[in-house]
Amino acid sequence: MGLKALRERFATPAVSLLFVVLWSTGFVGARLGLPHAEPLTFLLLRYAAVIVLMLSLAVVSRAPWPQHPRDWLHIGISGLLVHGVYLAGVFLAISKGLPAGVASLVVSVQPLLTAVASAWLIGTRVAPRQWGGLLLGLVGVAMVVAGKLGAEFGWHALVPAVIALLGITAGTLYQKRFCPKLDWRTGSVAQFVPAALATVLVAWPTEHFHVEWTGQLGFALVWLVLVLSVGAVSLLNWLIRYRSAVNVASLFYLVPPSTALFAWLLFGDTFSGMALVGMAVAVWGVYLARG
Predict the structure, then answer these.
(1) 84 close to 194: Cβ distance less than 8 angstroms
(2) Cα(254)–Cα(231) distance, rounded to whole angstroms?
């Protein structure tokens, strides 16, 4: 068995599973920190910490930087979408009362959007079985959200999550198309700088940059920087490079059940019987959609 075959058989499933678990904790980390800081202000703290950390690491390790201005542009645009639009949408949604588990469910519609867009824009072939799995996953998500909309949150909380969904979908496709080779250290700097600049422009007229420094906020910030922005994002970049866009996107159907488990353990969040069935349907959809 060749090196590539070994990677496909062992490394990729392990990386995929680790990515799902780590990515799921991001919604919980946002919920922990948001009571103590405005959403975009909290994001700016996270971006600043990631930029300083990854810039220092890149300099010490002499990591390769993008060689051409167009590479900087493409990486910056992907970062603006994957981090700036996506994270701002998620943080705003949760700050407006959207439960962490439901926020992850809304974003998990990404696989279906990615399949449609990749087939249309870059000619990716999506097999009938994958289409069936993606649609089944969408049904599972709808089963969970249907019982909660109106009863626990309103449209004002749901809209930012939908914007986050569009951002992560467009960003994943853009990175797959224009940034196939991305060093995880310098690439993070190139992605998070434009995301931070855009966030400042939006936060300046809308927030007061108030932060209540508490142990809970500190823990959430450290967790989101090290585990999410460094760990999970690096895994995502690896998966985007070595797997198809549809295959990578399908993993997001697994994030809601994982997020719901963490939210139940930490916050006591509960789900109805239909919601639990919906999660099971979504997981089955991922199984069918895998490439």
Answers:
(1) yes
(2) 18
Task: Name the nearest CA neighbour of 98 among 142, 30, 160, 157.
Answer: 157
Report which residue type is found at 228.
L
> What does pTM read for this prediction?
0.79
The torsion angles phi and psi of 211, rounded to 5 degrees, stand at -135, 130
What distance, in Å, lies between the first and last C-alpha atoms of the chain?
20
Residue 243 has pLDDT above 90, yes or no: no
Q: Burial code of 151-190, b = ≥16 C-beta within 10 A, e = fewer?
A: eebeeebbbbbebbbbbbbbbbbbbbeebeebbbbbbbbb
pLDDT in tens, 174-222: 887 888 677 888 999 999 999 999 999 999 999 999 999 999 999 999 9
Rounded to 5 degrees, what angle do the CA atoms 231, 262, 109 make? 75
